[in-house]
Amino acid sequence: MLxxxxxxxxHLFGDxxxxxxxxKTEDSFQAVLAEVTNLNPQPDLLILTGDLTxxxxxAAYMRLRDAxxxxxxxTYCLAGNHDDLDxxxxxxxxxxxxxxxxxxxxxxxxxxxxxxxxxxxxxLIGEVDGLLSAQSLAxxxxxxxxxxxxxxxxxxxxxxxxxxxxxxxxxxLRNQQEFWQICDRFPQIQVAxxxxxxxxxxxxxxxxxxxxxxxxTPSTCIQFKPNTPKFQIDSRSPGxxxxxxxxxxxxxxxxxxxxxxxxxxxxxxxxx
Length: 272
Fold this sequence. Notes:
By secondary structure, this protein is α/β, with parallel strands linked by helices. The chain has 6 helices and 17 strands. Keywords: Hydrolase, Iron, Metal-binding. Pfam families: Metallophos (PF00149).
């Protein structure tokens, strides 16, 4: 069994003391990371699904790297719409830390045990919503054709399904249908994970010929209120997701959150 921790939407600033809605993103990330460190057993992999920084600042990536190093866990860092696809891979490399996306190599593949992990780039430079390029979709199909017997997890930043928030669904993945049409043809795909929505979402997504477990994970900082037509901050605590991946393709998952008394947002702040 493989144990995978998904952390997402960390939003570190160049300024260590900067905050989103009253929450210092550095402090909330460090608190979540401490929870991961205390897990027994420790995860085999960490997957960070984007928006690692808020401002794409070099100092933010360096602090992220320095925080991850002591864990000594293979960590794969994906890009979100707030990230810099050129700067990120220049810093997040080495000491078991890997940039899964870059401007020159947008997608990457790893294998652990009998599981395949496919990390896609959904970032559109200068845009909040996302897109899987024609090249990325072709690459995805190629990997799936090559490893047809291998249980597969697919990860990228922007949600590939509506999560029930009209405003968030309008800035999700643009070409969701194209993605799921490919997934429909490959029954080895067991799970897809995204970030961006700052909330927990869990669905067994059924396509014509397939069914895939689909998860979105809470942010390590602020949370967005579920099932709202307009943007709202939620008072729920930062968190992360654990996924247990079994050799037969079965998946079990739990969402872990910090104590509710920690890192309460300032709900009087307006706008996003």
